[in-house]
Amino acid sequence: METLANLFGSYWPAIEITGWTLIKIIAIVIPLMLCVAYMTLAERKVIGYMQVRIGPNRVGYFGLLQPIADALKLLFKEIILPTASNKYLFFLGPILTIAPAFAAWAVVPFDLNLILADIDAGLLYILAMTSVAVYGVIIAGWASNSKYAFLGALRSAAQIVSYEIAMGFALVGVLMCANSLNLGKIVLAQSGGIFQWYWLPLFPLFIVYFISAVAETNRAPFDVAEGESEIVAGFHVEYSGMSFAVFFLAEYANMILVSTLAALMFLGGWLSPVSNIPDGFLWLLAKVGFLLFFFLWFRATFPRYRYDQIMRLGWKVFIPITLLWIVVVGGFMQTRFAYLFH
Amino acid sequence: MSFQGLIFQDYVFYALAAILLFAGLRVITARNPVHAALFLVLAFFTAAGIWLLLEAEFLAIALVLVYVGAVMVLFLFVVMMLDINLDKLREGFWNYLPIAAFVGVLMAAEMAMVLGTQYFSAEHIIAPAPHPAGYSNTAELGRQLYTDYLLPFELASVVLLVAIVAAITLTLRDRKESKSMNPAEQVKVMKADRIRIVQMASFKEPEEESNTKEGA
Predict the structure, then answer these.
(1) What pLDDT digit, counting tens, does each position of B159-197 carry?
(2) ω before A221 within 30° of 0 (cis)?
(3) Global ipTM
(4) How many residue contacts between A and B have a Cβ separation below 8 Å?
(5) β-strand partners of A114
(6) Which among B125, B33, B114 is positioned nearest to B78, based on CA atoms?
(7) Are B68 and A89 a contacting pair at CB < 8 A?
(8) For residue range A230-271, what is the model confidence (pLDDT) as tens digits?
(9) Distance between CA atoms of B18 and B40, rounded to whole angstroms?
(10) Which end of chain A is more exposed for a tag (fewer CB within 10 A), N or C?
């Protein structure tokens, strides 16, 4: 260490910080990738049991090695480049989809002081990152040089842009209550047991946020971007092998991300529901798992929405509800009931 | 500036600035409009990085959120759907070149005149003092907007609102062939509006038939 420090001289602090940050990033990304892999297994198992099937049970005990087998299969598959497609953009699409899904984790607090980058505008950063993710879908759809892929990309882009507004407004309510954009401070503002968490005073915003999150990740019942019965598989119809797998990974990573955000902002993050039980990372894990289960449950339960109804729900129902509730919260903050919203 | 004097931030700045210049250049030289739009996205993103170096984190993230995340998506949307004939676009290139060159040179000269004056030269602009760790750029900006600049801020928001309403009104015309539905009306439908239950015997009485037969 000492010799290295002498070798680089005045540059050593910068190099040291970069090295440590890289190690921390790996410590976040590898468990996240494992979560994504086992999320696919969980989805198949849960939907299987909901439909009175068993689900995958051949590879390993209870099918526990199934995600690894799937990953290996996809790795060895040939990647097909469609004729007259744009080579660079075709491969940029999947990368641009997954990069923001991982980059957003930089500001997510896992526990008190357990966070990669404790920046002040953390929530804004996450919103910015998730809004960049739409480029992957658009570029993939355009670069494929295929009608179905393009239609899927247009649907997806319009849907993501629309629901982002409702999602953003739902978060404005949280900001008003917590008085901060820092995710750690937002969690700490909810301390004091399950009834101090923001799901209660901001219940309409919580519901709107969660449904918008389902729409934002293009999951059922809002999965018209894929719409296999109408436009084959939407924007990733021309992708095969690992390039397809990256889209798949990004979708699940985004699901975990939005569930974590919902847990942090409405369900008290790492705080325990009863004040005499210690707080900790396991609480956050339990809350995220609880929310993720809903994603699977929705997929097994609801039929797909029609496209115009998705747009109507986003623009004419959710945005007015969030705007109204922001006014309600702001109004109550001026009265003696302000303590309800803090 | 000697090589030894460079600190880490300087390297980051020069890397970002190089990418920004390259992206900006490609926006105007790329033949394909979609590529040009994507390079503009890259330019915005890199500019946000440079703003982060200036400790203007709120503005940097807002740039990504608003321009990259919303404006350029819609821009790209339109550019992708247009059927652009590149040859036709380049048709009048040599005719327009003199005017374009004049405007370009004029703009460059104006910028040089502004930046070359004593007020804007590098020696006269003191680097802002780095803020303490607890400093919140967002809170500071919010305080400024809602206290000192409240009236201009509200005026700007009203102007934007008027623009939104005007734009929506322009595009909102009732097409006759539109099959859009009103969910409120759909929900309000009662059983009585749609079906009529008629009571009738499941078969005809046989007596009448036999009577007619006898009559024949």
Answers:
(1) 999 999 999 888 877 777 777 777 788 888 888 888 888
(2) yes
(3) 0.81
(4) 64
(5) A111
(6) B33
(7) no
(8) 777 777 777 888 888 888 888 899 899 999 999 988 888 888
(9) 14
(10) N
* Helix A319-333 and helix A203-216, axial crossing angle in degrees, nearest 10: 150
Q: What is the CA radius of gyration of chain A?
A: 21
Shortest CB distance from B138 goes to which of A89, A181, A312?
A: A181
Helices A203-216 and A241-266, interaxial angle, to 10°? 180
The one-letter amino acid at A39: M
Long-range contacts of A101-104 (CB under 8 A, 24+ apart): A101/A133, A101/A249, A101/A250, A101/A253, A101/A254, A101/A257, A102/A29, A102/A32, A102/A253, A103/A129, A104/A129, A104/A130, A104/A257
CA dihedral A218, A220, A222, A224 (to 10 degrees): 80
3-state secondary structure of A81: coil
| Other Cβ atoms closer than 10 A to B113 | 10
Chain B residues touching residue A11 (CB < 8 angstroms): 8
- Closest partner residue to A157 (CB to CB) among B57, B73, B138 is B73
The amino acid at residue A29 is V
Instruction: Write the residue in B57, B76, B183 that is nearest to A138 by C-beta.
Output: B76
Chain B residue set in contact with A, beta carbons under 8 Å = 8, 34, 38, 41, 45, 57-58, 61-62, 64-65, 68-70, 73-74, 76-77, 80-81, 136-138, 180, 183
Q: Which two tokens stand for residue A169?
A: 């407004």
Candidate from A89, A121, A131 with C-beta closest to B57: A121
Distance CA A276, CA B24 (A): 57
Looking at residue B130, the DSSP 8-state letter turns out to be P
- Pick from B133, B149, B132: nearest CA to B141: B149
Helical (H) or strand (E) element with B23: helix B8-29
> B64 and A132: CB-CB below 8 Å?
yes
Other Cβ atoms closer than 10 A to A193: 15
Q: Does B69 sit within 8 Å of A132, measured CB to CB?
A: yes
DSSP-derived secondary structure for A121-179: THHHHHHHHHHHTHHHHHHHHHHTT-HHHHHHHHHHHHHHHHHHHHHHHHHHHHHHHH-
User: Which residues lie below 8 Å from residue A199, measured CB to CB, with a gap of 6+?
Assistant: A206, A266, A267
User: Which pTM value belongs to this model?
Assistant: 0.83
Q: Do the Cβ atoms of A190 and A198 come closer than 8 Å?
A: yes
Determine the Cα–Cα distance for residues B37 and B79; give it in Å rounded to an integer: 8
